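Supplementary material to the annual report.
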Amino acid sequence: MPAMTAVDADAPAGAGTPAEAVGPLLRGVTVLRRLTEAGGTLSPSALERATGLARSTVDRITGTLGRMGYVRLDGRDVVLTPRVMELGNAYLAALRLPALLDARADTLADELDESVSLAVADLDGVRFIHQATRRRALSVSFRIGDLLPAERTAPGALFATEWTEADWTRWRERRAQDARDASFPAVPPRADPTAAPCSPPPSPDSFAQRVERARRDGWAVDDQLIEPGLVAVSVPVRDPGTGRVACVASVVSHTSRHSAADLRTSLLPRLRTAVTAMETDLRTAPAPEPGPAPAGLATWTTASKHELGRDFVESLARGLTVLTAFGEGRAAPSLTEVARATGLSRATARRALLTHEHLGLVAAHPDRTYTLTPRVLDLGFPALSRTTLPRLAEPHLRALADTAGEPTALAVLTSDGKEIQYTAGAGTSRVLTVQISVGTRLPATATSLGRVLLADTTAPLSPTLTEVRSQGYALVDEELESGLRSIAVPVRDRAGRTVAALNVSTHAARRTLRDVVADLLPALHATAAHIQQDLHTASRFTHVPPS
Ligand code: PHB
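Predicted assembly:
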């Protein structure tokens, strides 16, 4: 039956599906993985083909994921939303390495003016947990969550210094089954091994030789293993407790800037200094504070089931939320702790954990604790890890324009603080409407958007801006243009700083000033809250540019 084949393909090779595995959870994870591989968007019929599931099953799963806020429907397409990043965030928070090391990686990237990454081992692959990227014309740059074949990277050679015989066997089997790296969507495929070679293909033992060199040197290079021009040098960051490789820090460059031979003299010394500092940070980090566990899950899923009936697959929703029971200070919970954190019965939590273990998302340990694996990042993370504020705001602007029947816009302040610039907008089909073109600049003080943005700056505020700040919104009446009324509220980042402003415009003939506040302000606040929720989830471990 094709349905089972496609879903089973998501479990690690050789693992038969355990009898107690939760079927809808297996299928839901498959849907999330296929959406991620496709870049975040698929039509329901493309999902049917990619998963081998029946249309009615695809519809129920996407309906449930929609209710969880993990996907939305855009026309007929199913689209991953930033909210799904809470799954990868749970892994990254539990791992703690990004929280402890990202800032040092960013500083090193600034210092060298080169991209710097942090990667962890994922079976016989390498997965990025941080990217401090320099955007250049000539560069590939990977996303947080991308998986690369170990043998085509510098970090892979360092991780493989700790491989067991079983790891080498797994690697050889994968190479035999997937000679072109088709199972690694983030990397360009290898040349067809059956075609006439322009350059000799890497011999199977050359990776073993590079691993031996990495073991001897304590560092490794990637001389264009992924694609022509890309070079990297890597150093392991060791766990202070176990001495094992916790993650690998890499500096990535291009042959137009550095040859592979030259990386050793030009970049390696400063990379090593940064890694020493990272290891000190790991040694001296205070024990993590447990973050808040998800609340009210059981109540929420029961209510959703009552409301949506057959279209809500409760076991899928419960199973996915088990992943969010992990986090900072909850890196290795027991079954009892998972059940308590989620509000699920022990039996339900146990079956969900067993299913996740089968899928390679959770590891079970002899001391009866569980940890998340880097594979959790396959559930949406790379597809969304390069989002921007305008992009994540867009569907919320659309929804607001549709319900309010008025145009809405998002804007930021220009660097001199004198103007605003529209970064996103949604219009209406009215004849008399405000035209919003992304990129348009307007004087900041004359616009509701500008006043909201200026009210959050540290300069002494005018009485008007002081009032905007205290009331939390700006209302501008016919100042920019006769007949135009608009009302704006701030959009704040995780630290509470105003990073953008959101407004709704109307015509004086359509609404009195009082109506503007009474009718539009609540919806505006609700929309800002939705945008902020997405922004805060997406920016926990990735940089989300405000424009
Ligand atoms: C990276 O993009 O960070 C990267 C790429 C290839 C490597 C190492 C790091 O070998």
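Residues 389-538 form a domain with the Beta-Lactamase fold (CATH 3.30.450.40).
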